[in-house]
Amino acid sequence: MIQDWKDITSTPDLNWVPCFDNFTCTILQVPLDYTDLSIGNTTVPFIKFSSTNASAEDVLFNPGGPGASGIIAVKNGYKTILSVIGSRNNLVGFDPRGVNNSGLSLECFPNNLGAKIDFIIETLNRPIDDSSEAAIYDTYLKEMGWGERCTAHQDPKQPKQYANTVAVANDMRYYSELRAKSLGLPVETSKLWYYGTSYGTILGETYATLFPDRIGRMLLDGVVDSEEWYSGSFLGSLVHADAGMKTFFADCFAAGPAHCSFSGNSTSADDIERRFYTLFEQIQKRPLLADVALTATPVTVTWREIKYVFFEALYDPSLSFAGLADTLADLEQGNGTSLAMLSSQADLQLAYNNSQVVYADVLALSEIGCIDAAGRHNVSAFEDYLDYVHEQVNISWIGGGQWAVATAGACTRLDIKPPQSQLFQGTSGSNHTSVPILFLSNTLDPVAPIESARKESSRFAGSTVLTLNGTAHCGLQNPSVCQHQHTQKYMLDATLPPAGTVCGRTAIPFGSTT
């Protein structure tokens, strides 16, 4: 039983071996460029949780990012994912090019973990300080330096330009062909079965545009606007983030002090919200020192940590709102330790647990996004960068500063573009797919608004949007019996829910139900 990817030899075909107790694994050799095989190959690892159903299909899963590991997502969360797609089929996770165990590396800080942590904490994992032009300029310079560094650090045999979405879509097509080949079925008519969340919807939308007649099932959850993605400008992403933020106050009041520690003696959701902004202004003026006995060095917490933690909590309220409430309650008592620990959780994981996973998730998002955009959103001039920051902050108070850093400056000096054969040209008209696509969207998704799902659905004839009522990023983070009935039915026989179907949320945070 293999327990380490280093013990698996890459092969040109799907060669499954038992691994990690409950799974089988393979590392597939794929061409860097399918239009020119002479350029060479790279490797993509896959992990499979197999169904007992003899006629099971392989459903590929991508958890987003780009940069999140599909292997880790399936290995640790296969039960949750199977609750969405059902257990009749095999679940397959993979690390796309540039991610985790794949052959292509997006490394920018070789052999310097401290530099990685510093850059992530101080720049990528915090909202930009927009209090002055000088502060914005400081971040602008750091991101330019990062772009130059990431451009310079490349393996000439595995150039970063081949870590792009079009190339990964072709890898998925190639997988489906090899799967068909292994079953003795026609390769040229093989179909992809796929479930993608967040950026994984971009991967699905790209595949469906390039290979519309090669789809068995396609479930896209937490839908990102492909036009915004490939243009490199994300001004439509956060339109519901601040409304989603307000649900924290409403849910906290509904749960009461027994379940939401920040509820206190407040008499309404508005009262809780007012207390939050009063607290925020206090920390803005006077940051707090965390308990030095619990941190490696003296750590202060500021308004940036508050926004960072609150915005991140909107991705999965059922998991995060209770902890956020405890942190805010501590801050009211002058205790900044829990905020310091909560805001550094990802950073601590980066440093001490599995550095490549978190590092790739944060930096690959920017690198792959910039490569896909191919220079189409140019904010290399500071004036353009400044305007973009202000636009994002005006769109969302809670997330604009962080989103601006993640989506703008990273591309200013990253001089890497995909080859012409992997440059996405966009969709045209209404694509007819071999099986209609099912899109899922929450009404208050903080980074992928339901408008994006409706827009993408209009591009693919016969598709529909299943609306999920609530705040969360992706239906995977806002599950309900209604949702699972529709998604499992779709995966079974391609039946779409009736147009306009809305699933209410089964549970709200803080242990209360509706």
UniProtKB/TrEMBL annotation:
Pfam families: Abhydrolase_4. The keyword Cell division does not apply. GO terms for molecular function: hydrolase activity. Residues 408-503 form the Peptidase S33 tripeptidyl aminopeptidase-like C-terminal domain. Keywords: Hydrolase. Coiled coil: none annotated. Belongs to the peptidase S33 family. This is Peptidase S33 tripeptidyl aminopeptidase-like C-terminal domain-containing protein.
